[in-house]
Specification:
The chain has 5 helices and 9 strands. It has 192 residues and is α+β, with helices and mostly antiparallel strands.
C-alpha cells in the first residue's frame, strides 16, 4: 500500500481547511431506516483519528433513530474548490460519554442551550414555541455551566471503505479506493 488512508485524509482535510470558505468539515451523512429507506443530510465532522470519523446529534433525531435501527452509514466530503471528494462507508458506534461531554463543553453557550430546547427532527407548530423553550433554558441554566443533555451525544463511523476522488479533465477522474481487510488496508483503483 502506497499510502495510509487516514494520513491521506488528513492531508486533504488540511488543504480543505485552507481553501473552503464555509464549513470545510461539512459532510453528507447517509443512513437508512429499519425498512431500508435512505436519507441524507449535512453534518459537521468534529473529530477524526484511526478509530473513525465523529459527529454529534440528538439521539432522538431522525438520524439517531435510523442509526439505532441500522448502525451503518456513509459519509461524503465534497470540496468543490479543490475538485475532490472522499466517500467513506462503515459501521457506526456511539462515542464514550466522556468524549461527548468534552466536545459539548467546547460548544457556544447558545448551542448548548439549543440542544436542551430542541426536540430535533420532531414537528414544530410555530417557531415561537422553540424560541420560548430556548428562553426557558436560558433562565434554567442562568449563572451555571450547561451540562450535556442525556439525549445528545456522538457517533463514530468506523470505516471499512474509503474512496478518494480527484477531478480530471474530460471526466477522466482518478479514483483511489482503500478497503479494510482484517487488520490492514488494501489499496486499488476504480475506473472513472
Amino acid at each position: 500500500m502506497a499510502t495510509d488512508p487516514h494520513k491521506l485524509f488528513e492531508e486533504w482535510f488540511a488543504e480543505a481547511r485552507l481553501s473552503e470558505l464555509n464549513d470545510y468539515n461539512a459532510m453528507a451523512l447517509a443512513t437508512t431506516n429499519a425498512e431500508g429507506r435512505p436519507s441524507a443530510r449535512m453534518v459537521l465532522l468534529k473529530g477524526h483519528d484511526e478509530r473513525g470519523f465523529v459527529f454529534y446529534t440528538n439521539l432522538d433525531s431522525r438520524k439517531g433513530g435510523e442509526l439505532a435501527a441500522n448502525p451503518n452509514a456513509a459519509l461524503l466530503f465534497h470540496w468543490k474548490s479543490l475538485r475532490r471528494q472522499i466517500r467513506i462507508e462503515g459501521a457506526v458506534e456511539p462515542v464514550a460519554a466522556e468524549e461527548a461531554d468534552a466536545y459539548f463543553a467546547t460548544r457556544s453557550r447558545d448551542s448548548q442551550l439549543g440542544a436542551w430546547a430542541s426536540d430535533q427532527s420532531r414537528p414544530l407548530e410555530a417557531r415561537e414555541l422553540f424560541e420560548a423553550r430556548f428562553q426557558e433554558m436560558v433562565q434554567r441554566f442562568d449563572g451555571q455551566d450547561v451540562p450535556r443533555p442525556p439525549r445528545w451525544s456522538g457517533f463514530r463511523v468506523v470505516p471499512r471503505h474509503i474512496e478518494f476522488w480527484n477531478d480530471r479533465a474530460h471526466r477522466l477522474h482518478e479514483r483511489r479506493v482503500f478497503t479494510l481487510n482484517g487488520d490492514g488496508w488494501s489499496e486499488g483503483l476504480l475506473y472513472p
